[in-house]
Amino acid sequence: MESGYLALVLHAHLPYTRHPERKHTLEERWLFEAITETYIPLLQVFQGLLRDGADFRLTFSISPTLLSMWTDDLLKERVLRYLNQSIDLAEKEVDRTRKDPVFHRLANYYRERLGSIHRFWRHYNGDLVRPFRELADRGKLELITSAGTHPFLPFVKREESIHAQLRAALTLHEHHFGRKSRGIWLPECGYAPDLDRLLQENGIDYFFTDSHGLALAEPAPVFDLLSPVLTPKGTAVFARDPAASEQVWSSKEGYPGDYDYREYYRDIGYDLDFETIRPYIHPEGIRINTGFKYYRITGPGEHKEPYNLEWAREKTARHADHFLWERRCQVREGVHSIGRKPVVTAPYDAELYGHWWFEGPQFLDMLFRKMHFDQDELQPITPSEYLDRYGDYQVCRLAMSTWGRHGYADVWLNGTNDWIYPVLHRSEERLVALALRFDRPSSLERRALNQAGRELMLAQASDWAFIMDNKTMVEYAVKRTKHHINRFECLMEMLEAASLDEEWIAQAEALTPLFPQMDYRWYRPLTRGTVPVASECPRVLMLAWEFPPMMVGGLSRHVYDLSRALVKKGWEVHVVTTEIGDDPHTEMVEGIHVHRVHVMKPCGDEFYHWVFQLNLMMVDTVHALMDTGLSFDIIHAHDWLVSRAAKALKYRLGSPLVSTIHATEHGRNQGIHTDLQHRIHSLEQQLIDESDRVILCSTYMKREVEQIFHMPSDKAEVLPNGVDPELIQVADGREENKEPFAMVHERIVLFIGRLVREKGVETLIRSAERVLSRHPDTKFVIAGKGPMKEEWEELSRQLNLADKVLFTGFISDEARNRLLRSASVAVFPSWYEPFGIVALEAMAAGTPVVVSDTGGLADVVEHGYTGLKAYPQDVHSLALQINTILSDPEQAAGFAQRAKEELSRFDWNRIANGTISLYEKILPRDCSYLMVTRNPVSRVREENACI
C-alpha cells in the first residue's frame, strides 16, 4: 500500500539553432549531442521498462523549439550525418586503443552504444515524436509543452504577446501528439502575478514553480510543498522539492559529482593530438567534445583515473536506493501531517540525464524498477493523475519567482543583458498595433505578419539572456537577438509602407520554418485601452519613483504638489511612476495623468536591481504613450532612481531634460564608501551630466552638487520645496485630545520623518534626558518608519526612556495633522537635510519648530525669528533650544506666527512659476505646444541603430 507519490518531471528544451546557411555550426551540435546522449537513451530506458512489465509514470515537457527541430528534415539529415561520423570515430578508437585493455573496453562500449542509438534512429526514420507519442498512448508519459520560444514570461510586456507564445506552443503540441497539453513548463519556472489568468484562458490546468514560489505564497500553504495549491484563477501549482532536486541536480552535494561517475570535462576532442582528431572536430579546427570520455571524476584535482563501467553501475544502484529511501521518509512524515497521500515533485532539465550526468538514464531505469518490482510504498504519478485524485485544494496567491540564481530573475535581467528588453517591448507594441490594423490582409501581408510574429518570438527566447549572463557563447546570443529584431523591423517597415518584398519574405520563412500554424491575429489586443486626447497645452513628462499614495520620503509629496500647480498653470502633466497596491495603472489625479508601471517588489539588497527594471518599464510605458500620438515638450526627472530612463527618453524623444536632485548619496553617507554607493553616485553624475538644467531645493544643495559633481554654476537653479497649507487642515486653536500619543497633561515634542541615520533622531533621543530634567511632563513622539527604528527603540530602552519616547510607525495624513495640532514643538535634528518639507508642514500648522543649522533647514528657519536652530549632532545645543520653546510658550507662539507669515516664499504657485520659467529657457524657440505625431518608422530605425 503506497504512502505517497513521486512526480518526476523532465523538461527538454534547446533554443532554436537551425542554420541552413551553414553546413557546420557549433550551436547545432547542442541538438545532436542531446538527441544521442539524452533523448534516445531515455526513450530506450522507457521502452525497456515497458518491455519488462515495469509500471512507471513520468511527465515529459518538450519545448516547442525543440519539437520543431525534431521534426525538421534538414536537421534530421544532419543528425544522421553526426551519428555516422561518431560511429566512424568509434571504429577508429577501437583500433587505436587495442593495446590498452582498459580504454579498449570503453571504446568497444561506445561503439556498441552508438550502434544501438543508430538502429533506434533508423527504426523510427529519425522521427522522435512517434516513440514519445507511443509511450503517452500507453499512459506511461504525460507530455506537456512550454511557452513558444521559451520566453521569460514575467518580462514579456504585453498580454497579447504572452497569449501568442502560449497559442503557438499549444497548437504545435496538439498537432504533433494528437492531444492537448494539460500542463505547462513555464520557461525558467518564471511566474508573475496574473499570469495564471492567461494560463487559465488557454486551458492550462497546472504548472511548476520553484520551492520558494510556493513557500512564500499567501496564505501559507497548509500542506507545505507536499500538495499542489490553486491560484485564484484555478490553475494548479506544483512546487519543486528542494531536497530531491539537490540530490540529483548538484554536481557537488548531489549524485552526479560522485568520483566513480564519468568525467564530463575530459574528452578525446581535447586530449588526442590534432592530426588524429581533426576529421572529427569542427572543420575550422576548433576542438570540441566528441562524446568519447575515458575517465571518471576521480577527485577534485586535475588527476583522473580511467572510467569503470561496473563501479559506476554499482554506484547508480546505491544512489537510486538512497533517493527512494529519502523520498519514503518524506511521504511517511507527510501522510501523517497532511491527512492525504502527499506528492513529492521532482523536476529537472532533461539534458542532465545522459548529457551532463552520463549515468542519469540508468539511474531512472533502476529507480522505476525498484519502485515497481519491490512494490515500494512510494509510487510514481503524473500531475494530472494526482489532481484527479483530490478535489479540495487550497487557494493561494503567488508572488513573482523563478528558479536559477537567487530565485528572482537575476539571471535574465542584469548588466549583461538588460539592453534587450526595451527593444523587445517596443517590438511587442508595434506588432499588437499592426495586428489590429490589418483586418483583411492579402496573402502576402498575412505571410509578412506571421513571419514578424515568428521573429519577435525568437528574439524573446530566454536562452539569449541566459547565455549572456553565463558568458559562454555571448557573441552568438547577441547576434541572434539582433538578427531576429532586425528582420522583425524590416517586416514592420514593409507593412507600414505597403511595400512588400516577396522574395525577402520567402527567405526569412525558409530560415525559420517553425510554427506552421502561426496566426498574427494572436497578437490582437485582448482588451482595448483609451487613447489620450490631443492637447494644445505644453506637456511635461515627470519621472519619479514614488507618487501618492506611495510615500517613502518627501519626493512623493514634492512631485504631487508641483504637478498640481503646473496643471493649474495650464500645463499637461504626465507622471510615470511605480505601481502600488490596487491603485489603477492609469488614472487622472487632480488633472495629473498618472501612469503606474508594474515592477516586481524589491527584496533587501536587490533594490538596486529593482531600479533597473523600473527604468525599463518606464521607457516602455512612455513609448506606448508615444504610439498613441503623444509627444512631450519637457522631461523632468527626479533623483538617480530614474536616471537611466531619463537619459534614454531624452534621446528617443529629442526633448530637453530637467532634473531635480533632492539629495545625494555622498551627502547621505558623508562620502562614498561602498560599491553600491559608488554605483548610485555614478548614476547621479550621469543624470546631472545629461540634464540641460538642474534644480536644487536650497543654496546648500547647490553648493554640494557643484562641488561633488563639478557642475557649472550656470546649469543650476535653486527652487525651494513648497507646502500647501490646505493639506495640513489645522483648525483654529490647539488640539487638546492627545491620545493615543500622549496623556492630556503631557507636552509633545514631535519628530516626523523617515527613520534613517541622517535624520538625527539619535541626537533627539539623547537630548531627552536634559529636557525631561526641566520638563518632566514631556512626551517625545517619533512618527515614521525606516531601517533605524529598532536600533533607536533599543537606545530609548538603554537610556530608561521607553515610557517617554513613543515610536508610532507610519502615520496617515489625518494622524499627522492631529499630532501637529497637539505638539508643543516640532523638532528636526537632521545632520543632512537637502530641504525638509516636514519643517514647512509644521510651520504651516502653527507649530513652533527647532531645526538643525544645516542644509535646506538653515534656509527655511531664521533663528530667533521664525524658530530656533541647534548645532547638528550636538545633544546639549538641541536640548537647550527645545527647553527654550517649552519654557516660554508666548515666545514660541510668536515664532510660529511669524513662520506662517513667511510661508509665502514656499507657495507652490510661486514655485510653479519658477519651474515654468526654467522650462521656457530651454524649450525650442519655435515650440508651439501642438501635439506632434512622430513618424514611427523613422523612430524605430533610429532605435534599431542603437541595439
UniProtKB/TrEMBL annotation:
Output the superkingdom of the source species. Bacteria
Q: Which residues form the 1,4-alpha-glucan branching enzyme C-terminal domain?
A: 424-523
The residue ranges of the Glycosyltransferase subfamily 4-like N-terminal domain are: 552-726
The record, for SUPFAM superfamilies, names: Families 57/38 glycoside transferase middle domain, Glycoside hydrolase/deacetylase, UDP-Glycosyltransferase/glycogen phosphorylase
Entry's CDD domains? GH57N_AmyC_like, GT4_PimA-like
- Note one Pfam family from the annotation: Glyco_transf_4
Fetch the InterPro entries from UniProt: 57_glycoside_trans_central, BE_C, Branching_enz_MT3115-like, Glyco_hydro/deAcase_b/a-brl, Glyco_hydro_38_N_sf, Glyco_hydro_57/38_cen_sf, Glyco_hydro_57_N, Glyco_trans_1
Which keywords fit this entry according to its UniProt record?
A: Carbohydrate metabolism
Q: Does the keyword DNA repair apply?
A: no
The Glycosyl transferase family domain covers 743-901
Q: Where is the Glycoside hydrolase family 57 N-terminal domain?
A: 7-395
Q: Which family does it belong to?
A: Belongs to the glycosyl hydrolase 57 family.
- What protein name does the entry list? 1,4-alpha-glucan branching protein domain-containing protein
Source species:
Salinithrix halophila
